[in-house]
Amino acid sequence: MTRTHHFAAALLLALASLAYSAPAQAADEPPACTEEGFFPNPDDQSRFYRCVSFEGGEFTRFDFQCGPGTLYHPELVTCVHPWQMPQ
User: What is the pTM of this model?
Assistant: First the structure.
């Protein structure tokens, strides 16, 4: 591979890692998954996570961030503007 190809491959990997939300593993993260579904992050309303059970019965958690200026609405299971949040 040429130096240009190496650079392009590294750039593509870096961009892919920005688009992918890896399963959380840090100790200060929201609780571990015990069932499938979407759940709000208890510490930050602009974040939420999804629990998925793959083969083997173990859960994997995927973390997500709402877009700028929006918050996660757990009943609608989507990000909304602050004025659309339940009171």
Answer: 0.64
